[in-house]
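Quick review question:
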């Protein structure tokens, strides 16, 4: 019995010792504390076999026999084929992309290599210049489109063709509209890889913003085109390049020059193309159909409008095997849902509905009878896999574990790879069958922080001041929390659209730095206010024309909750945020003076008139249309309210939130006779990476430790 007791005592001692480690700033770069992952996991073409890279080898598992793992190809064998193709040996197994059941391609030193398992050969299929950017690769024939400076080029079998060269005013094949409206590429290959749709961007009337490149003996101007709210913006056209005829046809998107072209989708036969047209006011959207050969308008399929804004985010999804039907994802009823259309514009039916959001459309089964998607139907804090009948709307939830599921579906939706995270599981990879049953566990990493002392996490909701809306909150208590003590508080927030800080993933969305602060003795609190993502259109768009107002009211609900907790030191409350969170941090600090003893704002929007048109006008309209909203939200008008310690941080080459924002606030503070702390990261853009980010964490932590 004594031996058992002694053993338990020793186990308890070593377990406690093992959990005494504290995070260091440099842990941001420490891979060991991040959840493990499986490299290059994907389905092999249209088969039900999955592949991944491990130990410099390509591994395969069959979904009907997952206990067996076969090595398809080792690095040394691949290198034999590489050397036969006249290329340099690879140092590690490359990231691959399956083209079909037996062929995959990979990129190395500006070459596209095609490996064929039928005869174990490697082909140097295509190449492109070292300076190429904005690459788009056709999976049909490995044709490559790319930009060099302002021009657009195509490489076919290693032979380069100049589509258009461009200049300082005209860009070809670049991403327009500053990556808004779901636009993340500047060119689009047709299904057969023979035509290339591309954006032509006329920015001749857009003001050049004077960024500076410091890293020369004499600093040089490095201006960018930055259309501010209410100012002249880009004029965008959509061209189509025919690789066989070597000619360009422009799509006849007639209308105002001040419009956005979005949701570009090729018809399955490549003979026509669909383009969404959004007006400059962003409150009226039209989906049009055009002939790809002539560029002529064929048909308007549907329109959407909203007095606040319309924000298209998706392409059309054509039904496999039925080129006359497609699915459109829209928030037209207030929630992101799926709609079934015919290509003549007839709405067949709304497929999904309810007060929840479809977050990712995965596809249909091989019969085209059931659609699969991820959604927030279980909770806005979760992502679960669902299947809905295209005919009667019957819906089944397939994933069962509470948390966040990210799904990779096989051909025909017969099997699923489930990348899972929950409050009790950092990351896991599961193979699921069509009914959502777990067939195989590929990896489970329950807690990479098992050696670290981590504060207790609480997840709960508070009611907004309307008495109805739930506002989700996360609270991290200090390590070795003692309810009889008084603790300083760090409120960490973002508060703007397209972001959700709290969910039911591991650590509930809180990263290393927030836990580091809890280790240093802070109560760390976050609240997702109205205006943030994945809660429906009304929840997110309530900020329209009044950025900061509703968000502050919701954040004050959280502040009032904190101030009622007996273990909170109300004299030592701090607040921190970046970008929109920087705007919110300064808004809370300045417009509710005396509550926060210290505030740190990174890359803050100080006045929305200095923000770019595409995002800014969606939420605030133009300064001419909404002068009162701009006046009320401008932090320049509250510089005299500084009461406590304020630190502002900015990257000198920030192309998102112009440095001018925080510099002009400094000027306003000087005029008001107010002191504050200020720090810049030379040459950095909107976020810091690498050593600069480690330095940033230490800078912010030291500031709060000194002030609180």
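Suggested answer, residue by residue:
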């Amino acid at each position: 019995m004594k031996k058992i007791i002694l053993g338990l005592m020793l186990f308890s001692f070593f377990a406690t010792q093992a959990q005494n480690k504290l995070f260091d700033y440099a842990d941001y770069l420490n891979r060991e504390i991040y959840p493990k992952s499986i490299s290059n996991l994907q389905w092999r073409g249209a088969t039900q076999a999955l592949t991944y890279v491990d130990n410099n080898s390509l591994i395969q598992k069959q979904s009907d026999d997952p206990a067996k793992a076969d090595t398809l190809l080792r690095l040394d064998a691949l290198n034999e084929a590489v050397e036969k193709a006249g290329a340099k040996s690879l140092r590690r197994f490359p990231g691959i992309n399956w083209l079909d059941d037996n062929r995959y391609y990979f990129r190395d030193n500006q070459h596209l290599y095609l490996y064929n398992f039928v005869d174990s050969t490697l082909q140097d299929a295509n190449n492109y210049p070292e300076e190429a950017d904005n690459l788009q690769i056709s999976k049909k024939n490995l044709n490559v489109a790319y930009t060099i400076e302002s021009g657009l080029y195509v490489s076919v079998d290693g032979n380069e063709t100049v589509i258009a060269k461009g200049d300082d005013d005209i860009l070809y094949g670049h991403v327009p509209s500053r990556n808004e409206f779901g636009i993340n590429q500047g060119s689009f290959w047709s299904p057969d890889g023979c035509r290339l749709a591309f954006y032509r961007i006329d920015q001749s009337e857009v003001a050049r913003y004077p960024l500076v490149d410091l890293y020369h003996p004499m600093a040089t101007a490095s201006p960018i085109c930055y259309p501010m709210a209410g100012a002249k913006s880009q004029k965008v056209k959509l061209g189509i390049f025919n690789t066989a005829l070597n000619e360009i046809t422009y799509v006849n998107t007639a209308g105002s020059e001040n419009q956005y072209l979005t949701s570009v989708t090729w018809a399955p036969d490549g003979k026509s193309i669909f383009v969404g047209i959004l007006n400059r006011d962003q409150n009226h959207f039209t989906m049009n159909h055009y002939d790809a050969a002539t560029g002529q308008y064929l048909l308007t399929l549907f329109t959407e409008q909203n007095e606040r804004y319309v924000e298209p985010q998706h392409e059309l999804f054509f039904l496999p095997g039925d080129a006359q039907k497609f699915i459109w994802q829209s928030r037209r009823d207030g929630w992101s849902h799926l709609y079934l259309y015919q290509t003549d514009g007839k709405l067949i039916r709304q497929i999904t509905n309810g007060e929840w959001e479809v977050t990712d459309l995965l596809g249909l089964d091989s019969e085209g009878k059931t659609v699969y998607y991820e959604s927030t139907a279980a909770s806005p804090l979760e992502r679960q896999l669902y299947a809905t009948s295209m005919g009667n709307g019957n819906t089944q939830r397939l994933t069962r574990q509470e948390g966040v599921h990210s799904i990779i579906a096989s051909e025909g939706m017969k099997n699923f790879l489930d990348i899972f995270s929950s409050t009790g599981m950092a990351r896991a990879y599961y193979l699921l069958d069509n009914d959502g049953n777990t067939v195989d566990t590929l990896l489970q990493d329950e807690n990479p922080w098992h050696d670290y002392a981590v504060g207790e996490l609480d997840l709960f909701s508070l009611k907004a001041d309307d008495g109805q809306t739930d506002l989700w909150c996360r609270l991290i208590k200090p390590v070795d929390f003692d309810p009889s003590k008084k603790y300083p508080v760090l409120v960490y927030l973002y508060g703007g659209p397209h972001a959700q800080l709290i969910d039911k993933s591991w650590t509930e969305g809180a990263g290393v730095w927030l836990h580091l602060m809890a280790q240093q003795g802070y109560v760390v609190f976050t609240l997702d206010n109205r205006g943030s993502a994945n809660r429906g259109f009304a929840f997110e768009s309530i900020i329209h024309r009044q950025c900061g107002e509703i968000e502050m009211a919701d954040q004050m609900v959280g502040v009032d909750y904190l101030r009622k907790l007996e273990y909170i030191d109300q004299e030592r409350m701090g607040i921190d945020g970046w970008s929109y969170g920087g705007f919110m941090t300064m808004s809370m600090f300045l417009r509710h003076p005396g509550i926060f003893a210290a505030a740190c704002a990174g890359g803050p929007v100080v006045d929305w008139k200095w923000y770019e048109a595409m995002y800014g006008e969606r939420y605030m309209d133009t300064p001419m249309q909404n002068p009162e909203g701009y006046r009320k939200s401008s932090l320049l008008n509250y510089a005299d309210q500084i009461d406590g310690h304020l630190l502002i941080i900015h990257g000198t080459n920030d192309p998102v939130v112009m440095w001018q924002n925080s510099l002009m606030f400094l000027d306003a503070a000087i005029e008001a006779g107010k002191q504050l702390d200020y720090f810049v990261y030379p040459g950095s853009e909107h976020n810091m990476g690498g050593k600069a980010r480690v330095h940033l964490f230490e800078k912010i932590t030291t500031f709060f430790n000194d002030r609180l």
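Why it works: The chain has a mean pLDDT of 96. The first strand starts at residue 39 and ends at 43.
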